[in-house]
């Protein structure tokens, strides 16, 4: 029994990580091929840092993900706090369901309907190019928002309501009570929500594809455009770098958490 | 209290949106929006010439005005068409394929070019004038062209069998033949083999082609698009039809025990990708200058070397440097001797078919994939 579970574990890990390992290996391949490994080389990493358009799309992706997750975290937290304060249970359920729609809606429907709306509104204002960075940002906030709310609400539910009542008894204004008592309590939920929003925005393709305007291409859109010819190993190099950056952040956050617990 | 907070939130949201909208307007800098296929321009990688930066520099030196080029890419003509026709974006220069140009023109989505701004149009070879998608040469300037040929592994295929479309139906090589995984190209191979018209609207023609494709099924390794690169390079498959320019990409990466060769069966499909200005263009004159720049010597040669597709530009074809860089073998394959390219092209190249015929072909295609 023990061996069976060990084999199962090994297989699960192989299927999870083999693709990443293969990509990592081929990012160091001297040739362009995916089938022949002709020698170790850093050529594709050098090429990557010379590719202006790709670097620009990486920058675009990061700027977009940072602003979308920042704004949706602010809005989502405010929305969650507001939803908890709703007195009628039925009303709360209704608001809860409505905010979850963007999450369960297929991406393709969200993407197309947002594009149609932007074009429609753009026409009303007589603008020839209705899509821009702003429209893409609005789209990303739309689909990130429910994930933030989903992370913050349980934290608010766990919190003892008498805590903020006590703070107000002792003379805090509602706003001060929120910043001094509630916010530190729900902070882990807010952070998880922000990280989720950031990663969702980072790798979204479908919605970005429909709402991208002139001159603002994100990385997924650029890679998709490369399929006329083959995707160059530059992209394997880029994906490897992104993988290690994320791994590093994860380890860092784990270490920070451990230190926090020790205190 | 509550009201003030929500008012502040509203104001912050509105401000950020307005700020973002305002970012685009920088004084004194012109913006040119280009929409091209991915990996389809020399972009400075692997020590090549950076075309976009070159244009920005050239324009500033020549006209004294700064230009900023937004260079976006698409993966298929259909994607590009969807974005343009929704009216969601505005591009100044687009580079669609021939059949899509015909469609855009029918729908009045292209602007006629002012050739006074494109003096380098004289570089375009006569073979690429008067083609069906633009009979009066008013809307387009050809960028690249390519012809479909058959690639085979000489270590697995007897050379005596090569030479025609029949190789794709040769029972000796059962299990190692690749076929296109899209209806238009796959039916094309069968139609050329039968010697029929690829732009036929007669259903009986397409039924016969479908029979051929069904007969090929037991011989096929599979239906592929991009996967053809790895399958051919590694020697896993031995025969497949693809574009000449892509053959060289495979040749560069072939495994040691693989010896890829290439030939053109007769007749075959050719495609042309051409630069045009869509009706949503914001700066037509600047777009024409960009097209003109793309036809001048340095960028034209750099692009032809980078994409490995054939160039309709005589300056490229006659350049000693270019011929040397490509090598004799490549030149022979990329620029096959043909009597009259324009006539062959107008007779044999795929055109945009009417909706009913396309539907019928798609239905047949589904039955081939399932059956």
Q: What is the CATH architecture annotation of the largest domain in chain A?
A: Orthogonal Bundle
In CATH, the homologous superfamily of the largest domain in chain A goes by the name MetI-like
What's the SSE pattern of chain B? HEHEHEHEEHHEHEHEEHHHHHHH
How many distinct helices of chain A?
11
Structural class of chain A: mainly alpha
Which percent range describes the beta-strand content of chain B?
15-25%
Largest sheet of chain A: none
Strand content of chain A: under 5%
User: In CATH terms, what is the architecture of the largest domain in chain B?
Assistant: 3-Layer(aba) Sandwich
How far apart the termini of chain A lie comes to: 40 Å
Tell me the overall shape of chain A. globular
Q: How widely separated are the two ends of chain B?
A: 70 Å
Number of strands of chain B: 9
CATH topology tier name of the largest domain in chain B: D-Maltodextrin-Binding Protein, domain 2
The run of helices and strands of chain A is HHHHHHHHHHH
Please report the two chains with the greatest interface, counting residues with C-beta closer than 8 angstroms to the partner's C-beta. A-B, 48 and 52 residues
Average pLDDT level of chain A: 88
CATH topology of the largest domain in chain A: MetI-like fold
Rounded to an integer in angstroms, the radius of gyration calculated over CA atoms of chain A is 23 Å
- The count of helical stretches of chain B stands at 15
Specify Rg of chain B, calculated over alpha carbons: 24 Å
């Amino acid at each position: 029994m023990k061996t069976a579970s060990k084999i199962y574990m090994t297989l699960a890990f192989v299927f999870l990580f083999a693709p990443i390992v293969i990509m990592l290996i081929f990012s160091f391949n001297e040739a362009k091929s995916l089938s022949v490994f002709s020698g170790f080389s850093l050529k594709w990493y050098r090429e990557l840092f010379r590719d202006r358009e790709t670097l620009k799309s990486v920058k675009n992706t990061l700027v977009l993900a940072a602003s979308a997750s920042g704004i949706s975290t602010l809005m989502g937290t405010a929305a969650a706090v507001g939803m908890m304060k709703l007195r009628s249970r039925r009303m709360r359920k209704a608001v809860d369901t409505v905010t979850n729609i963007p999450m369960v809606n297929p991406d393709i429907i969200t993407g197309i309907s947002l594009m149609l709306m932007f074009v429609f509104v753009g026409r009303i204002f007589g603008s020839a190019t209705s899509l821009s960075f702003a429209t893409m940002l609005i789209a990303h906030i739309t689909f990130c928002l429910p994930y933030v709310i989903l992370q913050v609400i349980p934290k608010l539910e766990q919190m003892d309501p008498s805590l903020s009542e006590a703070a107000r008894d002792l003379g805090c204004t509602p706003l001060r009570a929120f910043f001094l008592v509630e916010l530190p309590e729900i902070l882990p939920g807010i952070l998880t929500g922000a990280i989720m929003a950031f990663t969702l925005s980072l790798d979204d393709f479908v919605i970005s594809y429909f709402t991208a305007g002139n001159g603002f291409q994100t990385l997924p859109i650029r890679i998709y455009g490369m399929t006329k010819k083959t995707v160059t190993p530059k992209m394997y190099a880029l994906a490897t770098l992104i993988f290690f950056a994320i791994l590093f952040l994860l380890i860092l956050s784990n270490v920070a958490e451990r230190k926090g617990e020790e205190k | 209290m509550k009201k003030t907070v929500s008012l502040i939130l509203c104001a912050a949201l509105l401000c950020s949106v307005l700020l973002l909208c305002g970012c685009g307007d920088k004084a004194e800098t012109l913006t040119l929006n280009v929409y091209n296929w991915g990996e389809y321009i020399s972009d400075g990688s692997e020590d090549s010439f950076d075309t976009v930066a070159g244009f920005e520099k050239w324009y500033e030196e020549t006209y004294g005005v700064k230009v900023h080029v937004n260079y976006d890419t698409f993966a298929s003509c259909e994607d590009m068409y969807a974005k343009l026709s929704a009216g969601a974006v505005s591009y100044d220069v687009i580079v669609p394929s021939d059949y899509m140009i015909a469609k855009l023109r029918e729908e009045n989505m292209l602007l006629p070019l002012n050739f006074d701004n494109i003096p380098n149009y004289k570089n375009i070879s006569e073979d690429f004038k008067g083609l069906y998608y633009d009979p009066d040469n008013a809307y387009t300037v050809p960028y690249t062209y390519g012809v479909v040929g058959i690639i085979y592994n000489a270590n697995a295929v007897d050379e005596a069998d090569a030479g025609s479309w029949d190789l794709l139906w040769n029972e000796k090589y059962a299990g190692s033949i690749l076929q296109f995984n899209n209806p238009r190209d796959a039916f094309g191979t069968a139609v050329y083999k039968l010697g029929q018209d690829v732009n036929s609207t007669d259903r009986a023609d397409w039924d016969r082609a479908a029979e051929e494709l069904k007969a090929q099924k037991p011989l096929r390794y599979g239906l592929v698009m991009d996967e053809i690169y790895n399958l051919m390079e590694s020697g896993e498959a031995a025969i497949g039809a693809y574009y000449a320019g892509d053959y060289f990409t495979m040749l560069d990466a072939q495994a040691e025990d693989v010896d890829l060769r290439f030939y053109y069966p007769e007749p075959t499909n050719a495609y042309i990708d051409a630069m045009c200005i869509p009706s949503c263009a914001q700066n037509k004159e600047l777009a024409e200058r960009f097209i003109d720049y793309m036809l001048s010597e340095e960028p034209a040669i750099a692009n032809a070397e980078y994409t490995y597709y054939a160039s309709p530009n005589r300056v490229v074809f006659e350049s000693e440097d270019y011929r040397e860089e490509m090598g004799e073998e490549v030149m022979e394959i990329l620029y096959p001797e043909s009597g009259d390219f324009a006539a062959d092209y107008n007779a044999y190249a795929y055109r945009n078919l009417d909706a009913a015929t396309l539907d019928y072909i798609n239905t047949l295609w589904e039955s081939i994939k399932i059956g």
